[in-house]
Amino acid sequence: MTARGPGLARLGWFVHHDELPPENSDSATSRVVVEHRGAYELWGPHGRFEAAVEGSFRDRAADGRDFPTVGDWVRHSLDPRHDRRVVITTVEDRSSAVVRRAAGHAPVPQVVAANVDVVCIVTTAGEDLSLRRIERYLVAAMGSRARPLIAVNKTDLGGPLPELGSVAGDVEVVGTSTVSGEGLDRLRRELAGDATIAFIGSSGVGKSSLVNALVGTEHLDIGAVRADGRGRHTTVRRQLLLVPTGGVVIDTPGLREVRLWDDEGLPGAFPDIGVHAPSCRFGDCSHQTEPDCAVVAAVERGDLPADRLVAYRELRAELADLLAEREQYERLARQRRDRGRPRGRATPRRSDEEISDR
Ligand code: GDP
Ligand code: ZN
Predict the structure, then answer these.
(1) Which phi and psi angles does 357 have, rounded to 5°?
(2) pLDDT tens for residues 259-315?
(3) pTM of this structure
(4) Ligand 2 centre from 291 Cα, in Å?
(5) Is 115 a pocket residue for ligand 1 (Cβ < 6 Å)?
(6) CATH of segment(s) 270-340
(7) Which of 2.102.10, 1.10.10, 3.40.50, 2.60.40 would CATH assign to domain 97-251?
C-alpha cells in the first residue's frame, strides 16, 4: 500500500451513488486506473494498489464483461498477498460501459471503459475526416449509455469546421485544438461535478494530446503493473487520470479501435432513419426492397441523404452477420463444454427431457 490517495468523491463516486460504500478494516472500494492483461492498478482513498481478481472470479464469470476494466469501482482486500497484490472480490454495477468486440479471432466482448459519463468521439477536419467512421463510433457510444460528444480536433490547422449534418444529429460538435487551446474549456465544463470523459477515435487524431492538455504534467505519471504474473514488471501508462480542475479522463488502447459488438446503439446513431421507420408498411422493414418503405420514400423526396440510408443498411447487415457469428461460436462452445462433462450428467438426453416434460 502506498500513501493515501484521492477520496472517492474526487474520483467520481457521487456522480452515480448517493452514499459512500461500507467502511471496514479489511476491505475497501477503489477505482480501476489501469487494466493490462488481467493485472490491475487501483486508486482510492487508501492509496494505489496492484490487484488481481480472486480465483473464483473465472468460474462465476459468464464472459469477459464480468471482469474489471478501467473506470470500474471494485471492492477489494486491503492486505496484499505474497505477490504484493490485493484481491478484487466484486465489481460494482456499471452506470455505463463501452463494449467492443475483443481483439483476436473469437467473437467475444470486452468492456474497454466503465462508468463513463461522456464519450468524446475525437476526429479531425480535413482529408482524413470520415463520416462513416464517425457513425461507427456513434453506434458504440450510443450503446454505452454514456452521453456522446464529438470533438473535431486540430482546428489550428485552419479551415472551417466540417459540416457533419445528419451524421451528428443532436450530438454536440466542439472544435478543439491542443495547440491553440480552443475548446478545452468546453471539455472542462463537461467534467464539472467530477464527471468522467472517455476519448475514443482512431490513432493520430489527438486523443493523448487532449488528455495531456487537460491533465497537465500528471499524465507523465507512469503506472507500473506486474502484467504477466511471472514477476516481470511491465510499464503501462495510467489509463484513468485526474484533471486538476475537476473530473476524470480515460484514454485506453482499447478505445482506439472500436470493433462493434452489438446493434444496441444503432437507433440512437440514426435518429433520422428512426423518424420515418414507423410509417413503413412492415413493422420489421429493413428499408431495402419492401413495398411502401417510408425511409426509401424520404430519400426519394430528398428529406434524407441517400448515403445515410446506404450507411445504415451496411451497418445493419454487418451487425446481423456478427450476431450470426456470435451464435455459432456460442453453440460450438456449449457443445465443447457438454462433451467435456462426465457421462450421465451433461445436458439431459432426449428420454430425460421427455420424462420431465410430463
Ligand atoms: P492519438 O493517437 O489520438 O492519441 O493522437 P496523439 O495525441 O498522439 O496526436 C497525434 C499527432 O497529432 C501528434 O503529432 C500531435 O502532436 C498532433 N496533434 C494533436 N493534437 C493536435 C492539435 O490540436 N493540432 C495540431 N496541429 N496537431 C495536433
Ligand atoms: Zn422501411
Answers:
(1) -70, -25
(2) 999 999 999 999 999 999 999 999 999 999 999 999 999 999 999 999 999 999 999
(3) 0.89
(4) 8
(5) no
(6) 1.10.40.50
(7) 3.40.50
